[in-house]
Amino acid sequence: MRLTSFSDYALRMLMYAASAGERLITIEEAARTFNVSKTHLNKVANTLTRAGYLKAVRGRSGGLALNRPADTIRIGDVLRLTEPDFALVECFVTGNQCIITRSCKLSRLLAEAIAAFQETLDRHTLADIVLAPPDFLAGAGPGNDISVTRPAA
């Protein structure tokens, strides 16, 4: 099983926003920090903002920040939002054509494993995985310093 890049970037963006505290982050700085496409992160940020995990502040001094405390953002909820499905095998999807579905024991085993995976992630919040700002600097692109404060609007 592998999470999509979208989910990976969503978790990274939330971790980054949490580490910034009250400071607004920008998609551009997050893209530099993680060395990923600004366009892709923009889509991730839109999804997280629509779901209420991030808040967007418009304007010249605008950016993104957590919209609620990190200890209220469950990792499992974020992944259910960002993953298209958890269909590990064909029989988990509509239109299943597998001829052994009725007698197969693998699907029950995998369903149990997915439930355990989600249950584990539901026990953890963003607060459990947040990093300190210097932890992001090791991979930061040129000119990126997350300790810089923005001028007030």
What would the keywords be for this entry?
153 residues, Arc Repressor Mutant, subunit A, two-stranded antiparallel sheet, mainly alpha
Give an overview in words:
With 153 residues, this protein is mainly α. The protein has a single domain, classed as Winged helix-like DNA-binding domain superfamily/Winged helix DNA-binding domain (Arc Repressor Mutant, subunit A). The chain has helices spanning 5-20, 27-34, 38-50, 75-82, 106-122, 126-129, 133-137; strands at 54-57, 63-66. The protein has a two-stranded antiparallel sheet. Helix 1 (5-20) crosses helix 3 (38-50) and helix 2 packs across helix 3 (38-50). The model is unreliable at 141-146 and 148-153 (pLDDT under 50).
